[in-house]
Automatic annotation (TrEMBL):
Gene3D superfamilies referenced in this protein's UniProt entry, alphabetically: N-terminal domain of the delta subunit of the F1F0-ATP synthase
Species for this entry: Zarconia navalis LEGE 11467
InterPro entries for this protein: ATP_synth_OSCP/delta_N_sf (IPR026015), ATPase_OSCP/d_CS (IPR020781), ATPase_OSCP/dsu (IPR000711)
UniProt xrefs under NCBIfam families: ATP_synt_delta
Keyword flag 4Fe-4S: no
Membrane topology label: Peripheral membrane protein
Protein name: ATP synthase subunit delta
HAMAP family noted in UniProt: ATP_synth_delta_bact
Organism placement in taxonomy: Bacteria, Bacillati, Cyanobacteriota, Cyanophyceae, Oscillatoriophycideae
Role this protein plays: This protein is part of the stalk that links CF(0) to CF(1). It either transmits conformational changes from CF(0) to CF(1) or is implicated in proton conduction. F(1)F(0) ATP synthase produces ATP from ADP in the presence of a proton or sodium gradient. F-type ATPases consist of two structural domains, F(1) containing the extramembraneous catalytic core and F(0) containing the membrane proton channel, linked together by a central stalk and a peripheral stalk. During catalysis, ATP synthesis in the catalytic domain of F(1) is coupled via a rotary mechanism of the central stalk subunits to proton translocation.
Keywords: ATP synthesis, CF(1), Hydrogen ion transport, Ion transport, Membrane, Thylakoid, Transport
Record's keyword annotation contains Transferase: no
GO MF terms held by the record: proton-transporting ATP synthase activity, rotational mechanism
Family: Belongs to the ATPase delta chain family.
Subcellular location: Cellular thylakoid membrane; Membrane
Amino acid sequence: MRSGAMGAQIADPYAKALMSIADDRDLADRIGRDMADLQQLLQESEDLEAFLDNPIIAPDDKKAVLRRVAESEIDPTTLNFLMLLVDRGRILFLDEVCRRYRSLLRERNQTVLAEVTSTVELTGSQRDAIESKVKDLTGAREVEIETQIDPDIIGGVIIKVGSQVLDASLRGQLRRLAVNLS
């Protein structure tokens, strides 16, 4: 899937149009869940991503695969939108469209995205503590947490909200200690 400046420039109008349709039909949150599911599907299946990116594959074949993979799982409005992306030759920007739509939805719902990196999967109480801390720091009404596992941080967590980074990892503490000693 294409990303970067050009991808964002192309994806933005599509995401805004989808948000407009979703608002008109009172489906914004439902379509937001669809966009999250589609992003996860693309991350988990490199074959699907390569298939959708391939310009040699006929649009009808791409539509058939998308219907087979997602039709029973997503709202018909989302499915129609996917067909539109295929027709317009923009399906290769699907990940970026999903990302941008979810960003618009978070703005609309006064929700912030906290990207949390830890050495192990977070427990429910740890997620709740992080959510509470992020709400206090940002004043947001809701917090959406995306987790990532990275054993290289040794211990602790790294929390990124927008451009703010709270590095409470052992690796970060060791790095700061080394800087102070030198």
